Amino acid sequence: MEFTQYSVDDFAFDESFQAYVAAADSEPGRFWQAWLREHPEKQSEADQAYAFVQGMRLAQPYAVSPELVPQELLRLRQAIRVPASRPRLRTQRLAWRFAGVLLLLLVAGLGWWRMTTQPAAPTGQLARYTTGARQHRTLTLPDGSVVTLNGNSTLTTAATWTATTPREVWLSGEGYFQVTHLATKPVADIGAAPANVKFVVHAGGLRVAVLGTQFDVNTRAGTTKVVLTSGKVQVDRQAALAREKVLMQPGDLVETSAARPRLARRRVQPGLYSGWMQGRLRFQQTPMRDVMQLLRDSYGLQVEVADSAMLQKTVYGEVPATTPDVLLAALAKTLNVQVVHHGNAVRFLPARR
Hints:
about 350 residues, alpha+beta, Jelly Rolls, Phage tail protein beta-alpha-beta fold, three-stranded mixed sheet, 9 helices, about 30% helix, about 30% strand, globular
């Protein structure tokens, strides 16, 4: 079957997709990430399958009390004991029949879970907006919301919007959202707001729901991050058969990854994460600790510091945000340190004498 014909079930039971869930940096992981960038209309179904497979991987077996183990084993042996005169083939058929029933129950459970907990993928005609490497694109959506796409990103929406159309988009890559507020009265629960009032971004297994605010969503290399500039954002993800939910405040960064799927929240300077829109990063007495984290979050670098005292220093100035090389060179000069950069690894060392 062509991947473009895959349903949630097909993704979930595909062994290469399961390998992608297990290790985003593996060969299957790189394949599926590249394929989904080319087919964003399948992102929602893939996200649902990803959450299901991840939940099954994280599921823990039911713990049986040690004193009950002998009793349970005896009961199990008695239940499966077959008379000696019964052909062995009958036993094999019984085993296969049991396996078939179990598989049907699993598929049925997946279907029920999908229908009751997951949003439907967009139907009908779609509008797709893409950017190439180092290209930015600003879009004004039919509801007045503005989205700025970073390089190598794709935004998918319904082709036409009406007053009753759910405000939903699907993102691959990175985008900065300035969402128009349509609620006519205060809403206590963003998630429970009418579909045409709340604005929902589906990205990397996350469902980001807002009423009207500004935030950045970055989903690359198996990691998805949401940084809130103003207002409130509700982020949730499917965890096994339950939902994990976080209500963000301005200055929060919430992230999930294949290695650490549980939602993690920490405080950041939002301006550092939206500087790519102007092509500049502006530091105003920014702690070096925050700059190091920015290198990890925005550029995917593995950063090490030889002397922890460097983390206490602050940085002031402005540098281009297109590549990390200029920023690393500026940091080396400002801090009077040596920066060693090989691949994704960066080390800050004391300056040579």
